[in-house]
Structure prediction request, 495 residues.
Amino acid sequence: MSIYKASIFNYLFNSINSVIVIINGIVMVPIYFHYMSVSTYGAWLATGNVVAMLGLLESGFASVITQKLSTAIAQKDEEKFRKLAGANILTAIFLAVVIFVLGISISPFITDWINVTGDIASDIRVSYIIALASSCIGLMVSLFGAFPQVWQDTKNVGMINTFVNIISIVSLIVALLCGCEVMSIAISYLVRSLLNLTLQGSWIIRNWKKKNIATPIIEVQESVLLAKQCAYPFLSKLSGVLMNNTQSFILAHFMNPVLAVIYDITAKICYVACSFVSMTNGSFFALFSLTMASKDQKKIESVLTTTTNFFLISLAIVGLYSICFTEPIARYWVGLDKFGGTWLLVVIVVAKLIYQMKGYCNNILYSGGLINKSAKLDIMCMSLYVLLLLAIIKTMQEYAIPLATIGSSLFFIGWYVRLMAVKLSLNVSILLKETTKAIILIIPFVVAHYMLNIDYNNLKLYAVYFIIFSWAFVTVLYMTNRDFFIPIIAKIRKK
Prediction:
């Protein structure tokens, strides 16, 4: 399978799985409120943030091992590949055990940290432990997932993920009906992790034999060497977790669990939609790594142009529709009493888009082997984020999180771009040009939308407005990105 085709298959199945995530993350939310209180759900969100913080011990290992395995394949160094594979397996098991032990040790204090008392505290602690076990198993799945990525054979794994995610939703519904309440969510996570580990593990073993690759070489020395190389990625991972996965915990700790729910509901549409955008990073990471390793500058330029166009077009669509249509969705989804308002929404969306941009640049630097340099910038960015957040959290409350993200990300994003130009000799003008185009494209539509102020309570009128709005936007999007769309349309017509 070609690297382009494999990346497309990867993106396709990730898209399917993201639709399932939408069902699980959006459709299921109002159902949760039938089985648990708003404060209980807020406590679960905060607990999930704690589990995410523990997951930072994964230390960016997945990105590092994917890049190094890709390089070994590009250089046709089978012995190095086997040593790295052995280090990957050993480290995955070790980290899973360490995270579980550490997570269990803090479990007695978890409810105090998020201001949860009474009968619900016991259910939250049990849910936390189940989610912790799921996270540890998921960590191993994530690290083992480097193999299909570097083999550029992601079709079957994508099918496995789709099947597992469907079963996970079924298990969630069954658990809710059985009266497990908040623990139902954690149980569904555990089911998903166990099934993924079993099925993906079987697939990797079967394909390992099919490719006639000798047994992985288990060397503690290789694992230690790889761990040292992950020192900076560890801190980089920490920065990502603190900036992108701690909102509910911060609000529950400094304010209350209910405010955590309001923030989550307001951000949910944008965050779920951005999972599609993030797939561009994940789906094309191995492609970047393999292309960079080839040292073919023309090929590198072509891949950068194509993926940048795709990424920023996706980002523009997500940003525009999140800002313009989250409120009416929230109105019929969970009620406006759980929506934080237009201004909070706008600030959250802007922060998320900027963070996605930073992540894209970071991914390119990683794939080019500039792991430590990129990680150092991540660390400094995270440090500034924490300082800004602590300075304004009491006065700005829920606004503090996105404002701190915007301030810290904008301050450092230029450094990422400079590294791409200087150290990787990439034509960053492509990135700058397309980013500017996306911003100019979005703003007029946002302004027009709020000036028109169409009544979304009139569903028929709003449906017509949505169709006209979308038609106008798609037309302008196509006209301003003809060089990207015309070759794609030509290929589709040919096939």
